[in-house]
């Protein structure tokens, strides 16, 4: 994932957190969904963002929350799917 795309992703997640009145910073390896900081509605908007921004098709593989639980996990997912 390119640096500017990663920053766009971080900005998207920051806004999602702020929509939940969570203004705390987050590390790239920090859990966002399993920890409860973001909810299932946020996950759906994230999935739509990832499909549009990176051309992912989540219907092509079995979904697991751990695939999108952190910036690092999302980066691994995007890189793996774009390499195919």
UniProtKB/TrEMBL annotation:
The chain positions of domain Carrier read 3-82
What residues form the membrane-spanning segments?
A: none
> Which InterPro entries has this protein been placed in?
ACP-like_sf (IPR036736), PP-bd_ACP (IPR009081)
Name a Pfam family for this protein. PP-binding
Protein known as = Acyl carrier protein
Organism equals: Accumulibacter regalis
């Amino acid at each position: 994932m390119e640096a500017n795309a990663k920053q766009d992703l971080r900005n998207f997640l920051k806004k999602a957190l702020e929509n939940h009145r969570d203004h705390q910073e987050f590390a790239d390896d920090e859990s966002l969904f399993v920890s409860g900081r973001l909810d299932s509605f946020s996950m759906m908007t994230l999935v739509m963002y990832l499909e549009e921004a990176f051309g992912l098709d989540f219907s092509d593989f079995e979904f697991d929350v751990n695939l999108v639980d952190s910036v690092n996990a999302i980066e691994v997912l995007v890189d793996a799917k774009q390499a195919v």
